[in-house]
Amino acid sequence: MLTEKILFYVFAAILIFAASMVVTVRHSVRAALFLVLAFFTAAGLWLMLHAEFLAIVLVLVYVGAVMVLFLFVVMSVDLDQGRLREGFGRHMPVGLLVAGVVIAEMVSILSIDQLAIVAPESATVAVNNVEAVGQLLYRQYIYPVEIASVILLVGIIAAISMTLRGRRQSRYIAPAEQLAANKRDRLRVVDLREPASTDSSAESKGDDN
Amino acid sequence: MDSLIEIFLGMWQWLPVAAQTVLVILAQIIAITIPLMLGVAYFTYAERRVIGSMQVRIGPNRVGYFGLLQPIADGVKLFFKEIVVPVKANPLLFYLAPVLTIAPALAAWAVVPFQPGWVVADINLGLLYVLAITSMGVYGVIIAGWASNSRYAFLGAMRSAAQIISYEIAMGFALISVLVAAGSINLTDIVMAQQGSAAHWFVLPLLPIFVVYFISAVAETNRAPFDVAEGESEIVAGFHVEYSGMTFAVFFLAEYANMILICTLTSLLFLGGWLSPFEGIPGLEALFSWVPGIVWLFTKILMMGFMYLWFRATFPRYRYDQIMRLGWKVFIPITIVWLVLVAAAVVAELPWWFD
User: Fold this and answer.
1) How far is Cα B226 from Cα B318, in angstroms, rounded to an integer?
2) Mean pLDDT lowest among A92-96, A120-124, B88-92
3) Cis peptide bond N-terminal to A93, omega within 30
4) Please, which pLDDT band fits residue A102 given cuts at 50, 70 and 90?
5) What is the pTM of this model?
6) Which residues, including other chains, have CB under 8 Å from residue B18's CB and lie 6 or more apart?
7) How many domains does one find in chain A?
8) Which residues of A touch B124 (CB under 8 A)?
C-alpha cells in the first residue's frame, strides 16, 4: 500500500509539473514535449486504478499518434516568439476576466455537495478489462457508439474529399510511353558533307544512322 | 555445494518481500536483455555476411574465426569514441533521444512469451501493450532530429515521423484481424489458438494480412527499402547524422532490437510461435516431440530476420510519395476488407481454422 501511495504522489507531482510547464514554457516544441509527459503520467495513474485498457489506449492514441502529428506541425512552423508576445499587456485584462469566470464556474460546480469529490475507486475486475469495456460499448451504449462512428466516418470522408483536386496539376511522363519510344522517333542524322553529293545524303538518310 | 545453496536460500528468505520482488524483476529483465543484446550484435554480423554473399563478396572475416568477433570489436570501438554535441543543439534532448528510442524497444519484450509460461508479464492486453509501447519509439527519432540542430537530421526525422504514423495504421488493422481470428489479445492465447497443425497457423487464413503486417513492420523499423529516414544518398544519415560514439550505438541497438521484436511478433502471431511445424503429422510429430518449443520459435525468428536482410540486399529504396501511396491507398484498404472477411469467417465458424 505504501509503495502505491508513494508511486501515486510521484506520478501526481510529475503530472502537475508537466501540465504547468505546458502553459508556461516559452518554446512551443518544449511545451508539446511536456504535454506528452503529462499524457504518459496520466496513463500511469490510470494504470494504478486498474484501468489498464484506458491507460494503454491513452498512450497508443494520444502519445503514439496525436502528439506525434502535433510535434510534426510545431517543429515545421517557425514561430516568432517576439511577435507572439507583442500584445500581451493589451490582451491581459480580457484573459484575466475569462480565467476568473472559468475558475468561478468550476468552484461553484465542484462545491455542490452532490458532486463532493471522492477518490476514484480502482476497478474491481471480475471479467477482464477489455471485456468489460467491450460489453459496455457494444451492448449498453451501442447506439451512441454507432452514431459517433458514423459522424467520424463522415468527417473522414469530408477531410479526404478536401484533398481531391479535380484535374491533375502536375505534368508527368508515363513510363510505358517512355519505354515505347525508340531511337528512330527522336534522332535524325543529318549529313553535313558537301551539298554537291545530294544522292548520297538521301541514301544515308534512308538507313538512318 | 549444498551448504552454499542453503546459505543462499537463507539470505534470500532474510530479504524483505519488496526487495525479493525487485530482485526477481531485475533478474527477469537481465535474462531477456542480455540474450537480446547478443542477438543484436550477431544480427549485425549476420547482416554483413548474408548481404556480402548475396552481393558476391566476403564480408567481415578478419576478427576471430570467420569474423565472429567483429561485432564485439565494433562495440568496443564505438564505446571509446568521442561523443560530439553540435553547437546550439539542445543538450538535454540530444542525450534523451537515444534513450527514448531504445527504452520502448526493450520494454515491449515484457509481454512476449517464449514458451507456455515463459513470459515476464502475462497480461491480458499483451498485443495492445506492444502496439502502444512500440508507437513511442518515434519520439526518439523526432527528438533526435530536432535537438541536433541540423537540416539533414530534421528532414530525416520528419520523414520518419510521417512514415511511422502512416504504417502504424495498417499495422494496427492487421493486428485487429489477428485478434479477431484468435479471439484474444493475450499473446499466449493467440499462439494457443493456432494449435492443431502447421496448416492451422494464421499465416494461411490471414495470408494478405501477414504480408501487409511484415511489410509495414519493415517500414516501421525504417529498414530498407523504406529507409528514407536515413537515406544515405539524399540526407547523409538522416536523424542520427549528428550522433557519434555510444549515442549512435544506442540508436543502432534500438533499430536491431526492434527488428528482432518484429520478427518475434510475426512468428507468434502468424507462424504459431513455439508450436512445432510437425504437429499433427503422425510419424514426424513423435520424432520431433523432444525439441523444446523455444527452438521452433527461434527458428522462425531467424527465418523472418533473414527476410529483413534479403529485402535490404534486393530492393532499391522507395520514393517518399510511393511509400505514402503504398501505406494509405494499398495496405489500409486490404486490411479493412480482410478484417471484414475474417470477422465473417469467425462468425460462420469456418471449418478447419475457426471452428
Assistant:
1) 6
2) A120-124
3) no
4) very high
5) 0.81
6) A3
7) 2
8) 52, 128-130
Whole-number Å distance between alpha carbons of B171 and B265: 12
Cβ-Cβ contacts under 8 Å for B215 (sequence gap 6 or more): B331
Residue A41 within any structural domain of the chain = yes
The reply to whether A76 touches chain B by the CB within 8 Å rule is: yes
Domain extent at residue A69: 1-77
Residues of A in contact with B144 (CB under 8 A): none
Q: Could you tell me if B149 and B85 are in contact, meaning their C-beta atoms sit under 8 angstroms apart?
A: no
Report the CATH number that the domain containing residue A67 is assigned in CATH: 1.20.120.1200
Within a domain: A196: no
A1 and A65 belong to one structural domain: yes
Domain co-membership, A11 together with A68: yes
Place of cell 501505406: B327
Percent of chain B with pLDDT over 90: 10
Among residues of chain B, what percentage have pLDDT more than 70? 98
Q: Where a domain ends, among A45, A61, A77?
A: A77
Measure the CA–CA gap between A62 and B254, rounded to whole angstroms. Answer: 23
In angstroms, the separation between the Cα of residue B206 and the nearest Cα of chain A is 23
- Mean residue pLDDT of chain B comes to 85
DSSP string, B65-94: GGGTTHHHHHHHHHHTSPPP--TT--HHHH
Distance, CA of B240 to CA of A197 (rounded, Å): 67
Banded model confidence at residue A206, pLDDT cuts 50, 70, 90: very low
Q: Which of B164, B192, B165, B212 is nearest to B338 (CA)?
A: B212
pLDDT at A126: 56
Task: Sort out which chain A residues have CB atoms less than 8 A from B132's CB and list them.
Answer: 56-57, 59-60, 63-64
Assign B153 a pLDDT band (cuts: 50, 70, 90). confident
A113 in a structural domain:
no
Question: Which residues 16-35 of chain B have a CB within 8 Å of chain A?
Answer: 18
Nearest CA in chain A to B96: A33
Residue A122 confidence class, pLDDT cut points 50, 70, 90 = low
Q: Give the single-character DSSP code of A119.
A: P
Is A56 within a domain? yes
The per-residue pLDDT for range B223-249, each reduced to its tens digit, is 878 887 776 777 777 788 888 888 888
Single residue among A18, A51, A77 that ends a domain in this structure: A77
Contact pairs from chain A to chain B, CB under 8 Å: 63
Element (H, E) at B335: helix B332-347
Q: Do A14 and A73 share a structural domain?
A: yes
Element (H, E) at A2: helix A2-24
pLDDT digits over B288-346, tens only?
Answer: 778 888 888 899 999 999 998 999 888 888 888 888 888 888 888 899 899 999 889 88
The answer to whether residues B107 and B284 touch, using CB atoms and an 8 Å cutoff, is no
Give me the helix-helix angle, B70-79 and B245-270, nearest 10°.
140
